[in-house]
Automatic annotation (TrEMBL):
Homotetramer; dimer of dimers. This is 4-hydroxy-tetrahydrodipicolinate synthase. It comes from Candidatus Tenderia electrophaga. The gene is dapA. The record marks 44, 107 as: Part of a proton relay during catalysis. Catalyzes the condensation of (S)-aspartate-beta-semialdehyde [(S)-ASA] and pyruvate to 4-hydroxy-tetrahydrodipicolinate (HTPA). Keywords: Amino-acid biosynthesis, Cytoplasm, Diaminopimelate biosynthesis, Lyase, Lysine biosynthesis, Schiff base. Its EC number is 4.3.3.7.
Length: 291
């Protein structure tokens, strides 16, 4: 259903932390102009942990409105509360989002059966396409391939964002789920290989700053053109590394501010990128042809 470069979009803010919808509209146009294949609104990169429910739903609604059907919008609606995840997913569907992205419940450490029942309950409550999201490095909760295979049998669970960076695991899920589930990389550094193995795309942080390059690299990788994909990805290696020098989205928001696309607003407990990392991020932007 979805493929290619899906940007994990930042949520622009003023210096005081208030939401900057004018900048959000500029970002949506930036991605449309540069070939991004879909926008993921209010995921981890969109600072979902610090947006209250009203902000969360409004950013999704505004993103859908700004996109105006020109590219799909996937709404981050995950929570460690099943009831809250259902409420957010219902709100996203009502706002016109094309799908939801549901992270594994963080902090409370459910069992594999708990994960199955959590995602099953959301899928049964909200009749929209749903993409699961496994990122144990942030959530302290790892959804194992057996659980993914069970969930792939639910008709409106259509994809998985696998962000472990473990290509062996990705291959196992591909082998087990076949055409029953679309797999997307959630790790920019390994995304090229993930797609060459059979993944359908990447939900990308790097695409925030180099959308055209990520779109072209994804198109080559999904088509199985290894040589072209490697050639396009090579100048982006510095971004894949240095946009994670501090917790995402700290470096990527700073990079976008350097590019003049957004201001320096970010919500506590996150802070603006530390001075010692500025040169490394600038150099990665230059290497990628941005500055």
């Amino acid at each position: 259903m979805f493929h290619g470069s899906m940007v994990a979009l930042v949520t622009p803010m003023q210096v005081d932390g208030s939401l900057d919808y004018a900048a959000l509209e500029r970002l949506v146009e930036f991605h449309i102009d540069n070939g991004t294949d879909a926008i993921v609104a209010v995921g981890t990169t969109g600072e979902s942990p610090t947006l209250n429910e009203a902000d969360h739903c409004e950013v999704i609604r505004k993103t859908v409105d700004f996109a105006a059907g020109r590219l799909p919008v996937i709404a981050g609606t995950g929570s460690n509360s099943t009831r809250e995840a259902i409420d957010l997913t219902l709100a996203a569907m009502e706002a016109g989002a094309d799908a939801s992205l549901l992270v594994t419940p963080y902090y409370n450490k459910p069992t594999q059966e708990g994960l199955y029942q959590h995602f099953k309950a959301i899928a049964e409550a909200v009749a929209m396409p749903q993409i699961l999201y496994n990122v144990p490095g942030r959530t302290a909760c790892d959804m194992l391939p057996d659980t993914v295979a069970r969930l792939a049998k639910i008709s409106n669970i259509i994809g998985l964002k696998e962000a472990t960076g473990d290509l062996q695991r990705a291959q196992e899920i591909l082998d087990r789920c076949g055409d029953g589930l679309d797999l997307y990389s959630g790790d920019d550094a390994t995304a090229r290989e993930f797609m060459l193995m059979g993944g359908k795309g990447v939900i990308s942080v790097t695409a925030n700053v180099v959308p055209k390059a990520i779109h072209e690299m994804c198109a080559a990788a999904v088509a199985g053109d290894r040589a072209k994909a490697e050639e396009l990805d090579a100048p982006l290696a510095g971004l894949h590394e240095n946009l994670f020098l501090e917790a995402n989205p700290i470096p990527v928001k700073w990079a976008l501010a350097e590019m003049g696309l957004i201001g320096h607003g970010i919500r506590l407990p996150l802070t603006v990128l530390s001075d010692p990392h500025h040169d490394a991020v600038r150099q990665a932007l230059r290497q990628a042809g941005v500055l």
